[in-house]
Amino acid sequence: MDERKNCTGAARTTAFVAAAGLSAAIISANAGTYALDDGTGSNNLGPSFACEFMWGNIFEVQPDAGVITTISVSFGTLGTPQERPVRVYLYQMKNADDPTDAELIATATGLSGLQRTNIFLDYPIAPRAVYGSFFVSASMQVFGNATVIPARYDASSAPSADRSWFFGADSYLGMPLSDAPFAGNMANNIIKGVFMVRATGVPNTCPADLNWDGVVDDSDFVAFAGSYTVFDCAGTEMPFGCPSDFNADGFVDDGDFVVLASAYDALACP
Ligand SMILES: [Ca+2]
Ligand SMILES: [Ca+2]
Ligand SMILES: [Ca+2]
Protein backbone atom coordinates (compact mmCIF):
# COMPACT_ATOMS: atom_id res chain seq x y z
CA MET A 1 0.00 0.00 0.00
CA ASP A 2 1.14 3.51 -0.73
CA GLU A 3 -0.61 4.85 2.30
CA ARG A 4 2.51 4.37 4.38
CA LYS A 5 4.38 7.60 4.85
CA ASN A 6 7.14 8.78 7.05
CA CYS A 7 5.74 9.36 10.47
CA THR A 8 5.97 12.90 11.70
CA GLY A 9 3.41 14.98 13.48
CA ALA A 10 1.40 14.88 16.64
CA ALA A 11 -0.70 12.14 18.15
CA ARG A 12 -4.42 12.59 18.40
CA THR A 13 -6.36 11.60 21.46
CA THR A 14 -9.98 10.68 21.08
CA ALA A 15 -12.12 10.21 24.13
CA PHE A 16 -14.48 7.28 24.17
CA VAL A 17 -17.56 7.03 26.34
CA ALA A 18 -18.69 3.47 26.92
CA ALA A 19 -22.13 2.67 25.63
CA ALA A 20 -24.60 1.24 28.08
CA GLY A 21 -24.80 -2.51 28.13
CA LEU A 22 -21.24 -3.23 27.12
CA SER A 23 -19.67 -5.84 29.27
CA ALA A 24 -17.24 -4.31 31.68
CA ALA A 25 -14.04 -5.51 33.19
CA ILE A 26 -12.43 -8.78 32.35
CA ILE A 27 -9.58 -9.14 34.82
CA SER A 28 -7.77 -12.40 34.74
CA ALA A 29 -6.98 -13.94 38.10
CA ASN A 30 -4.09 -15.90 36.64
CA ALA A 31 -0.86 -15.28 38.53
CA GLY A 32 0.96 -15.29 35.21
CA THR A 33 -0.94 -12.36 33.72
CA TYR A 34 0.79 -9.02 33.33
CA ALA A 35 -1.58 -6.03 33.21
CA LEU A 36 -1.46 -2.33 34.01
CA ASP A 37 -5.12 -1.63 33.20
CA ASP A 38 -8.07 -2.42 35.48
CA GLY A 39 -10.06 -4.11 32.70
CA THR A 40 -12.13 -1.14 31.64
CA GLY A 41 -10.64 1.21 29.09
CA SER A 42 -11.71 4.83 28.81
CA ASN A 43 -9.96 6.39 25.80
CA ASN A 44 -8.35 5.57 22.48
CA LEU A 45 -5.16 6.92 20.97
CA GLY A 46 -3.99 7.17 17.40
CA PRO A 47 -1.75 9.48 15.42
CA SER A 48 -2.95 12.22 13.07
CA PHE A 49 -0.65 10.94 10.34
CA ALA A 50 -0.31 7.69 8.43
CA CYS A 51 2.11 5.11 9.80
CA GLU A 52 2.44 1.72 11.38
CA PHE A 53 1.41 2.79 14.89
CA MET A 54 2.80 0.84 17.86
CA TRP A 55 1.58 0.97 21.44
CA GLY A 56 2.58 -1.10 24.48
CA ASN A 57 3.60 -1.44 28.09
CA ILE A 58 6.67 -2.11 30.22
CA PHE A 59 6.31 -4.88 32.81
CA GLU A 60 8.62 -6.18 35.51
CA VAL A 61 9.25 -9.91 35.28
CA GLN A 62 7.43 -11.98 37.89
CA PRO A 63 9.44 -14.91 39.26
CA ASP A 64 6.73 -17.45 38.42
CA ALA A 65 6.08 -16.13 34.91
CA GLY A 66 9.51 -15.61 33.37
CA VAL A 67 8.64 -17.09 29.96
CA ILE A 68 6.21 -15.01 27.92
CA THR A 69 3.81 -17.04 25.78
CA THR A 70 0.96 -14.71 24.79
CA ILE A 71 0.34 -11.02 24.15
CA SER A 72 -3.26 -9.85 24.59
CA VAL A 73 -4.79 -6.65 23.22
CA SER A 74 -8.08 -4.84 23.68
CA PHE A 75 -8.63 -2.44 20.79
CA GLY A 76 -9.92 1.07 20.37
CA THR A 77 -11.60 2.37 17.23
CA LEU A 78 -11.03 0.06 14.25
CA GLY A 79 -13.52 1.27 11.68
CA THR A 80 -14.74 -1.08 8.97
CA PRO A 81 -13.68 -3.80 8.72
CA GLN A 82 -12.72 -4.35 12.36
CA GLU A 83 -10.47 -7.23 11.33
CA ARG A 84 -7.20 -5.51 10.52
CA PRO A 85 -3.68 -6.90 10.38
CA VAL A 86 -1.96 -6.66 13.77
CA ARG A 87 1.60 -7.43 14.73
CA VAL A 88 2.61 -8.06 18.34
CA TYR A 89 6.11 -7.72 19.78
CA LEU A 90 8.08 -8.89 22.79
CA TYR A 91 11.16 -6.85 23.67
CA GLN A 92 13.80 -7.62 26.29
CA MET A 93 14.53 -4.33 28.06
CA LYS A 94 18.11 -3.16 28.58
CA ASN A 95 17.13 -0.85 31.44
CA ALA A 96 14.08 -0.51 33.67
CA ASP A 97 12.40 2.59 32.26
CA ASP A 98 12.94 3.09 28.54
CA PRO A 99 12.28 0.59 25.72
CA THR A 100 14.02 2.55 22.97
CA ASP A 101 17.16 0.41 23.24
CA ALA A 102 15.30 -2.84 23.96
CA GLU A 103 15.92 -5.99 21.91
CA LEU A 104 13.10 -7.53 19.87
CA ILE A 105 13.02 -11.23 20.80
CA ALA A 106 9.63 -12.43 19.51
CA THR A 107 6.91 -11.20 17.18
CA ALA A 108 3.72 -12.60 15.67
CA THR A 109 0.88 -11.48 13.45
CA GLY A 110 -2.88 -11.79 13.58
CA LEU A 111 -6.11 -9.91 13.03
CA SER A 112 -7.83 -7.37 15.24
CA GLY A 113 -11.52 -7.21 16.14
CA LEU A 114 -14.04 -6.23 18.80
CA GLN A 115 -13.46 -2.50 18.93
CA ARG A 116 -14.06 -0.64 22.20
CA THR A 117 -15.39 -3.69 24.04
CA ASN A 118 -12.64 -4.14 26.68
CA ILE A 119 -12.37 -7.73 25.47
CA PHE A 120 -8.79 -8.90 25.03
CA LEU A 121 -7.78 -10.90 21.97
CA ASP A 122 -4.89 -13.32 22.49
CA TYR A 123 -1.90 -13.47 20.15
CA PRO A 124 0.43 -16.42 20.89
CA ILE A 125 4.15 -15.91 20.34
CA ALA A 126 7.05 -18.33 20.30
CA PRO A 127 7.70 -18.54 24.07
CA ARG A 128 10.74 -16.62 25.26
CA ALA A 129 12.42 -16.04 28.61
CA VAL A 130 12.68 -12.43 29.80
CA TYR A 131 14.72 -10.85 32.60
CA GLY A 132 14.25 -7.76 34.72
CA SER A 133 11.73 -5.85 32.59
CA PHE A 134 10.18 -6.40 29.19
CA PHE A 135 8.11 -4.39 26.74
CA VAL A 136 5.09 -5.87 24.95
CA SER A 137 3.32 -4.01 22.19
CA ALA A 138 1.01 -4.19 19.20
CA SER A 139 1.10 -2.31 15.92
CA MET A 140 -1.41 -1.52 13.20
CA GLN A 141 -1.40 0.52 10.01
CA VAL A 142 -3.28 3.78 10.54
CA PHE A 143 -4.20 6.40 8.01
CA GLY A 144 -4.09 9.68 9.88
CA ASN A 145 -7.74 10.42 9.27
CA ALA A 146 -9.28 9.13 12.53
CA THR A 147 -10.96 6.11 10.93
CA VAL A 148 -8.59 3.87 12.93
CA ILE A 149 -7.66 4.95 16.47
CA PRO A 150 -6.45 1.57 17.64
CA ALA A 151 -4.67 2.01 20.97
CA ARG A 152 -7.23 1.59 23.73
CA TYR A 153 -6.14 2.86 27.11
CA ASP A 154 -7.29 3.14 30.69
CA ALA A 155 -7.14 6.55 32.31
CA SER A 156 -7.97 5.18 35.75
CA SER A 157 -4.50 3.62 35.87
CA ALA A 158 -2.87 6.96 35.05
CA PRO A 159 -0.29 6.72 37.89
CA SER A 160 1.39 3.97 35.84
CA ALA A 161 1.26 5.94 32.57
CA ASP A 162 5.04 6.21 32.37
CA ARG A 163 5.04 2.45 31.66
CA SER A 164 3.10 3.00 28.42
CA TRP A 165 4.91 4.04 25.23
CA PHE A 166 3.87 4.57 21.62
CA PHE A 167 5.76 4.87 18.36
CA GLY A 168 5.25 5.71 14.69
CA ALA A 169 7.35 4.19 11.89
CA ASP A 170 7.00 2.38 8.60
CA SER A 171 8.10 -0.89 10.21
CA TYR A 172 9.72 -2.01 13.48
CA LEU A 173 11.50 -5.09 12.19
CA GLY A 174 15.26 -4.89 12.03
CA MET A 175 15.67 -1.63 13.91
CA PRO A 176 15.70 -0.43 17.51
CA LEU A 177 12.74 1.62 18.69
CA SER A 178 15.11 4.58 19.07
CA ASP A 179 15.11 4.75 15.26
CA ALA A 180 11.33 5.26 15.09
CA PRO A 181 10.63 8.77 13.71
CA PHE A 182 7.89 9.30 16.28
CA ALA A 183 7.86 8.26 19.94
CA GLY A 184 5.88 9.20 23.02
CA ASN A 185 5.15 8.27 26.60
CA MET A 186 1.65 8.29 28.06
CA ALA A 187 2.82 10.20 31.15
CA ASN A 188 3.14 13.17 28.78
CA ASN A 189 -0.22 12.68 27.08
CA ILE A 190 -2.99 15.20 27.71
CA ILE A 191 -5.16 12.40 29.10
CA LYS A 192 -2.77 10.07 30.88
CA GLY A 193 -3.39 6.34 31.03
CA VAL A 194 -2.05 2.86 30.38
CA PHE A 195 -2.53 0.80 27.26
CA MET A 196 -4.85 -2.20 27.18
CA VAL A 197 -1.99 -4.51 26.27
CA ARG A 198 -1.25 -7.51 28.48
CA ALA A 199 1.05 -10.50 28.52
CA THR A 200 0.86 -14.02 29.89
CA GLY A 201 3.83 -15.89 31.25
CA VAL A 202 4.68 -19.34 32.56
CA PRO A 203 7.52 -20.42 34.85
CA ASN A 204 10.99 -20.65 33.34
CA THR A 205 11.70 -24.34 33.84
CA CYS A 206 15.13 -24.18 32.22
CA PRO A 207 16.83 -21.04 33.54
CA ALA A 208 20.29 -22.38 32.71
CA ASP A 209 19.49 -22.16 28.99
CA LEU A 210 20.60 -18.55 28.98
CA ASN A 211 20.57 -18.09 25.21
CA TRP A 212 17.20 -19.87 24.82
CA ASP A 213 18.28 -22.32 22.14
CA GLY A 214 16.90 -25.44 23.82
CA VAL A 215 20.18 -26.88 25.09
CA VAL A 216 22.51 -26.08 27.98
CA ASP A 217 26.01 -26.06 26.55
CA ASP A 218 29.20 -24.04 26.31
CA SER A 219 27.41 -20.94 25.02
CA ASP A 220 25.39 -20.81 28.23
CA PHE A 221 28.49 -21.54 30.29
CA VAL A 222 30.31 -18.59 28.73
CA ALA A 223 27.38 -16.28 29.48
CA PHE A 224 27.21 -17.57 33.02
CA ALA A 225 30.96 -17.25 33.59
CA GLY A 226 30.83 -13.56 32.67
CA SER A 227 28.12 -12.93 35.25
CA TYR A 228 29.89 -15.09 37.83
CA THR A 229 32.90 -12.81 37.49
CA VAL A 230 30.77 -9.71 38.10
CA PHE A 231 29.07 -11.50 41.03
CA ASP A 232 26.74 -8.71 42.23
CA CYS A 233 23.46 -8.34 40.29
CA ALA A 234 23.66 -4.60 41.01
CA GLY A 235 27.04 -4.39 39.31
CA THR A 236 27.22 -2.10 36.32
CA GLU A 237 28.74 -4.85 34.19
CA MET A 238 25.93 -7.32 34.95
CA PRO A 239 23.44 -7.96 32.12
CA PHE A 240 20.14 -6.22 32.89
CA GLY A 241 17.82 -8.44 34.92
CA CYS A 242 20.71 -10.64 36.11
CA PRO A 243 19.70 -13.73 34.08
CA SER A 244 22.33 -15.97 35.72
CA ASP A 245 20.98 -15.42 39.24
CA PHE A 246 18.92 -18.60 39.07
CA ASN A 247 18.04 -18.62 42.78
CA ALA A 248 17.16 -14.90 42.82
CA ASP A 249 19.30 -13.96 45.80
CA GLY A 250 20.93 -10.96 44.14
CA PHE A 251 24.27 -12.60 43.40
CA VAL A 252 25.71 -14.96 40.81
CA ASP A 253 27.76 -17.43 42.79
CA ASP A 254 28.22 -21.12 43.50
CA GLY A 255 24.57 -21.47 44.48
CA ASP A 256 23.70 -20.68 40.89
CA PHE A 257 26.60 -22.62 39.44
CA VAL A 258 25.24 -25.91 40.76
CA VAL A 259 22.04 -25.25 38.79
CA LEU A 260 24.04 -24.63 35.64
CA ALA A 261 26.35 -27.60 36.23
CA SER A 262 23.54 -30.08 36.65
CA ALA A 263 21.78 -28.88 33.50
CA TYR A 264 25.11 -28.76 31.63
CA ASP A 265 25.81 -32.39 32.46
CA ALA A 266 22.46 -33.37 31.01
CA LEU A 267 22.79 -30.92 28.08
CA ALA A 268 19.27 -29.87 29.02
CA CYS A 269 17.24 -29.05 32.05
CA PRO A 270 15.99 -31.97 34.14
CA1 LIG B 1 -10.32 1.67 34.04
CA1 LIG C 1 21.47 -22.64 25.50
CA1 LIG D 1 22.11 -16.34 43.06
Produce the secondary structure layout.
Layout: E1 11-15, E2 33-34, E3 43-47, E4 50-60, E5 67-73, E6 75-77, E7 85-92, E8 103-111, E9 121-129, E10 133-143, E11 149-154, E12 164-169, E13 182-185, E14 194-195, E15 197-202, H1 218-230, H2 254-266
Antiparallel strand pairs: 1-3, 2-15, 3-11, 4-10, 4-12, 5-9, 5-15, 6-11, 7-8, 7-10, 11-14, 12-13
Helix pairs in contact: 1-2
This protein binds calcium ion (CA) (3 copies).
Average predicted local confidence, pLDDT: 90
Q: Quote the beta fraction.
A: 25-35%
Bulk shape? elongated
The biggest beta sheet is recorded as:
6 strands, antiparallel
The class by helix and strand makeup works out as mainly beta
Task: Note down, in words, how this protein is organized.
- The protein has two domains: 11-202, no CATH class; 218-266, no CATH class.
- The protein is mostly beta strands.
- Helix 1 (218-230) packs antiparallel against helix 2 (254-266).
- The chain has helices at 218-230, 254-266; strands at 11-15, 33-34, 43-47, 50-60, 67-73, 75-77, 85-92, 103-111, 121-129, 133-143, 149-154, 164-169, 182-185, 194-195, 197-202.
- 10% of the residues lie in helices and 35% in strands.
- It binds calcium ion (3 copies).
- One calcium ion (CA) is lined by residues 209, 211, 213, 215-217, 219-220.
